[in-house]
Amino acid sequence: LSQNSFNQGYYERFFIEEKKLGRGFRGSVYLCKHILDNVHLGEYAIKKVAVGDNHSWLVRMLREVHLLEKLHHPNIVDYKHAWLEYHQLTNFGPQVPCLFILMECANGGNLEEYIKEQSSTQHDSEEVNLSAKERLLRTRRMRQAHEQSTTNPNNVPKKRYLELPEIWSLFIDICEGLAHLHRHGIVHRDLKPSNLLLQYDEEENSIVLISDFGECEILDQLSERDRTGATGTLEFMAPELLTVDENGKYYKDYSQKSDMWSLGMVLYYLCYSRLPYYQVDDVDLLKQEILHFKRLVTHEILFIVYPSLF
């Protein structure tokens, strides 16, 4: 990487890091205050991505920046700026070349957190503080409770669900943002509640912003190369993306249709505060459950699909 490409010290001079908002496959996102000469300019989300000294890897990471630059839409997180500098990502690690992506910060967290908070019972209200092992045990108990509910439903704690008007309001926002992506020939490939952010205005009205475009692809580029692996989050992947031939080659590639399947899973999550799968603690069993998932296929329900998605 050319040393002229670095803006060393920019992050430390103009930003105060508040907390980590989340972590993905390629980098972590932080809540930061933007400061100029001790004047507070606002709060932003900054994504830090380690790029090393490989220029081709940097070009690949900058794909997210290029996509965000042309995707201005009320339901898509707004891109602000990007730069390079050496940065220490861990307490004991060395400084490495990092790409910083400055983005709009949603003040309401993500949709997954919101639904868990709104639908929590006394049994699961503390779930956000559980360890991975404790969450695994709780998931198993939830599956057992579901099985018991068929014989003795009175013993199962009742959850609170989102009201239908709120479900439609949130879902329409997601549809509008996804339709904008598809109109530009872009496939998100990782649509899920944790990548859907909530922004509240002064009157406490919420709007959903689609975020995390690290896995996005342009349709024309997808058709130019063979698919070598699974991208995205397994629970939200369409069944056809998991099907391979006798040589282990995937039959189908990502498309707008695979985004639509993920959209359907998001709608299910909005309605029931969970997904329709139970084998979440075993990847192989979960894949089989997704592949054999029973779904309704009928042209009679097309009239209820949001028009902008056609």
Automatic annotation (TrEMBL):
GO terms (molecular function) for this protein are:
ATP binding; protein serine/threonine kinase activity
Record-linked Gene3D superfamilies: Phosphorylase Kinase, domain 1 (3.30.200.20), Transferase(Phosphotransferase) domain 1 (1.10.510.10)
The keyword Protein transport belongs to this UniProt entry's keyword annotation:
no
User: Boundaries of each Protein kinase domain copy?
Assistant: 15-310
GO cellular component assignments: cytoplasm; nucleus
Report the EC number(s), separated by commas if there are several: 2.7.11.1
Give the keywords, sorted.
Answer: ATP-binding, Kinase, Nucleotide-binding, Serine/threonine-protein kinase, Transferase
**What reaction(s) does this enzyme catalyze?**
L-seryl-[protein] + ATP = O-phospho-L-seryl-[protein] + ADP + H(+); L-threonyl-[protein] + ATP = O-phospho-L-threonyl-[protein] + ADP + H(+)
Parts forming coiled coils: none
Its EC top class is: transferase
> Is this entry keyworded Kinase?
yes
By sequence similarity, the record places it as follows: Belongs to the protein kinase superfamily. Ser/Thr protein kinase family. GCN2 subfamily.
This protein is called what? non-specific serine/threonine protein kinase
Q: Which organism is it from?
A: Rhizophagus irregularis (strain DAOM 181602 / DAOM 197198 / MUCL 43194)
